[in-house]
Amino acid sequence: MREFKPLTGYRPYWAKRFGVAPFLPMSREEMAALGWDACDVILITGDAYVDHPSFGMALIGRLLEDHGFRVGIISQPDWRSLEDFCKLGRPHLFFGVTAGNMDSMVNRYTADRKIRSDDAYTPGGIAGKRPDRAVIVYAHRAREAYPGVPIVIGGIEASLRRIAHYDYWSNTVRRSILLDAKADLLLYGNAERAIVELAHRLARKEPIAAVRDLRGSAFAVPFGWRPGDDWSELDETKPSPEDGLARVAPGRLSREKTVVRLPSYEAVKADATVYAHASRIFHYESNPGNARALVQQHGDRDVWLNPPPIPLSTPELDYVYELPYARAPHPAYRGAKIPAWEMIKFSVAIMRGCFGGCTFCSITEHEGRIIQSRSEASILREIEAVRDKTQGFTGVISDLGGPTANMYRMACKDKKIEAACRRLSCVYPSICENLDTDHAPLIHLYRQARRIPGVKKVLIGSGLRYDLAVRSPEYVKELATHHVGGYLKIAPEHTEEGPLSKMMKPGIGAYERFKRLFDAASKAAGKEQYLIPYFIAAHPGTTDEDMLELALWLKRNGLRVDQVQTFLPAPLALATAMWHSGKNPLKRLTGGGEEVSVVRGEKQRRLHKAFLRYHDPKNWPLLRAALRRMGRADLIGNGKRHLVPAWQPSASSGKGAEAD
Fold first, then answer.
1. What is the pLDDT of residues 596-616, one digit of tens each?
2. Does domain 346-615 match CATH 3.80.30.20?
3. pLDDT (tens digit per residue) in 5-54
4. Which of 136, 151, 290, 383 is 20 to 30 A distant from 487 in Cα terms?
5. CATH class label, 1-212+300-306
6. E strands present in 223-279
7. In the chain, where the domains are located
8. pTM
9. Do residues 11 and 36 touch, judged by C-beta distance below 8 A?
């Protein structure tokens, strides 16, 4: 792979002379006002354009602008015609296509495949402003509008579909989105390094078909293509007898010159166990320090994945987050409420990445396991910017966080060990002894943030990793004393070892230890505060008996959860491989591998969700029938030890009525 430059190590493109746009233009009139006759890059997105670093199109757009490129935005275009795709003209360099901050299918459909009634990334929260599989649709329309212009796809939707993947909504294995979108290049993960280098190389008239060495990129080539004669290929179509993963033998070429061949699209489509094996290989080749290139055959073509991007340094991350964002939605929306913006406009991102490795989560596949943290000074400057520039600020910062609340500045104690590590999680099945779990930098950041004039309170809204927090009672005390607004969200996800082992989540004991610390700290501070736990229903590895035990635990602890989540198989996630194959890719798949119980039927999924909401009378008939079937009719009755009563409220009066 090509040696990377720091993000600030490039000579700006000539259009830098035009200066900074108040907002990246969304119309020809705005382009004319800036003195532009054309755009160098046009970004097409399924989200409303909010000029803030939490919105991908703004971050990438402002980064390219700082490098001297003229960047236009086509936001939520009407895909039924070409008109919106032509409104900014032909870009000189490329179209950048993304579905937005969310996968378009997750955005449009619930876990039960029902169409959602709203869209948080659209003005007014209106649903239906983006198509299904938005990246494919937008890429086709852009190609139709301006044939010959390179199409570069990226963002979460492209990232999670970069190889053959199980698609929950069509219940089939689909091929790489790169082929379906007919794109020239796919940039996966956080793509700042790749997008900047690509723009400069295309500006130097290098053909996009020659760009084959960018880390974090994927491209399609004829079957059997190699970058050069000194590359070697490992055949990974069958699991190795040791652990399902091939190794570079002594005397072979270095990992940097080795490509791992995944089972083909045709093979993973035909055999779910082979799919699980491919997922296992894919996830073990995700550490930027040792990952090898991956290649997967699709018919007469290969989809080639270069190793993951090198994480940004702290100065680079500061630079990206402190670009001249307007910190507001584009004026074209005329003040319409954009729910996602309303949610984050008073929050500040302090880091990215997550080393938890939860199998149902897509953060690791997209952002990686290495934590990238901003400097304290940069974060404090952004808090001041929120105070001074964000309309409606009342003195409350709603969140200092990221994918997790308390992984700030946590890293492996030894860079050499980190570069060689092949673990899927730094904290499961136990916290790695090489992981620095010091919360002191985060505690200091909290204290400094509270001291900023005009800031009345700093809340923590991101998900908390409680198994890390219990290692620092001082952090828990700081959190409970100053940074909780009455309720703190936390996600134990389950109580039983079966599903927890398939999630790669800690046992419920860690949650209970955290709760004791939190309750004691809240009491000492004279505050009445509560934890709001989140749980997942119908996750792979979960039985009806597991859900019953969870319901009994909830009842014993006096918990009545209202917001519950039913497992949704997101593309590329390890839990999705379990759901599709009924196998456990966390373990060797030789000899058939470990079987995983899977909840697929709608009725059983409803039952698992009903156990979480055992207190809802609407669920009692379903639960009573299940308890009788499970031989646990002893839990039906009107006493405190019973899970559900034997009577059913009248639908008309709300009064009790005898059960059937």
1. 999 999 999 999 999 999 999
2. yes
3. 899 999 999 999 999 999 999 999 999 999 999 999 999 999 999 999 99
4. 383
5. alpha beta
6. 232-235, 258-261
7. 1-212+300-306, 224-299, 346-615
8. 0.94
9. no
